[in-house]
Amino acid sequence: MRAIQIAELSGPDSALRYVELPDPEPTHPLSPNGEEAVVIDVHAAGVSFPEVLQTRGEYQFRPPLPFVPGSEVGGIVRSAPAGNGLTPGDRVAAFTALGAFAETAVAPSFFTFKLPDKLDLAQGAGLVLNYHTAYFALKTRGRLAEDEWVLVHGAAGGVGTAALQVARGLGARTIAVVSTEAKARIAQEAGADHVVRSDGAWKDEAKELSGGGVDLVLDPVGGDRFTDSLRALREGGRLVVVGFTGGAIPEVRVNRLLLNNLEVIGAGWGAYAMPKPDYVREVGAALERLIERDYVCPLIGARFDWENAAGALKCIDGRQATGKVVLDVK
């Protein structure tokens, strides 16, 4: 099969190699008790910030070189273990952890979901990582309740657009923070109730829109906006930290938390979810209901041909990405 490997830690421009590899065996290290994994013919692979970091050796998970990157796919089941509800020919969205940048990939059964008819295979490649992360951050960690106000940073990106949709599906009201008018249009398409600009007085605007402060801030960006995010919260508010796509890891003076009884909450989805198959299935079922009710519909931004995987990574690295970036495999 055709595959793309990270062969050196030199960044998106030069780290990738196109290779021919044997088809993978139906096994996966995340499968419980050595259970047979699902083999998938990949049509589209999701491209995310962790792959950019992996090309430099900067991600916390560092497989030995060379390795096939990519953690999520939209594709067609080639084979599946008996009794798991999947059959050859099923359209699926799956989380693979590694190996998605290839013509064939394997995923644990509990991380493989039948794709509803209203979503295409490219949207399948943008479903698991971003939307499970958003649900985990908002509901499991952030304890989001109906009618609360949510402010989402990086709201035009993959996690941001997913968070806007999931929050609305959970009955919350949303404020999107974006950096350009083009990204504002993406956030509006994702269903944001209000959009504010990160280069303006977004904190004050958010407090005015929400009647004194938001209940929850979701931050996948980090950087220098962290303190103002705390200031944008109402009494008892929560700031959920998802990542640091802006590069800088912020620090907090904890006395700020005392002033309004605030919380800063970490949301590390992978470490929490990967050893919990039942939890993953529960979130998958919750997202399926939101898809059926037309709240969740992944927004696909840039799509890149197989031969231009480096371009997909550079799009994310240059902070040009909106929605989900997808690599077309077939």
Key traits:
Quinone Oxidoreductase, Chain A, domain 1, 2 domains, 330 residues, 28% helix, Rossmann fold, 7-stranded mixed beta sheet, 6-stranded parallel beta sheet, alpha/beta, 15 strands
Structure description:
- 28% of the residues lie in helices and 25% in strands.
- It has helices at residues 49-54, 121-124, 128-141, 158-169, 181-189, 202-209, 226-231, 255-259, 269-273, 277-292, 309-317, and strands at residues 2-6, 16-20, 38-47, 72-79, 91-95, 104-107, 112-114, 149-152, 173-178, 194-197, 214-219, 233-241, 263-266, 300-304, 324-328.
- The chain is α/β, with parallel strands linked by helices and 330 residues long.
- The radius of gyration is 19 Å and the shape is globular.
- The relative contact order is 0.15.
- It has two domains: 2-127 and 298-328, Medium-chain alcohol dehydrogenases, catalytic domain (Quinone Oxidoreductase, Chain A, domain 1, Alpha-Beta Complex), CATH 3.90.180; 130-271, NAD(P)-binding Rossmann-like Domain (Rossmann fold, 3-Layer(aba) Sandwich), CATH 3.40.50.720.
- The strands form three sheets. Strands 3, 4, 5, 6, 7, 14 and 15 form a seven-stranded mixed sheet that branches.
- Helix 3 (128-141) crosses helix 4 (158-169) and helix 3 packs across helix 10.
The total number of structural domains is: 2
Task: Name the structural class.
Answer: alpha/beta
Oligomer classification? single chain
**Straight-line N-to-C gap:** 12 Å
Could you state the CATH homologous superfamily of the largest domain?
Medium-chain alcohol dehydrogenases, catalytic domain
Strand content: 25-35%
Largest sheet: 7 strands, mixed
What is the name of the CATH topology of the largest domain?
Answer: Quinone Oxidoreductase, Chain A, domain 1
Helix-strand topology string? EEEHEEEEHHEHEHEHEHEHEHHEHE
CATH architecture of the largest domain: Alpha-Beta Complex
Percentage of helical residues? 25-40%
Radius of gyration: 19 Å
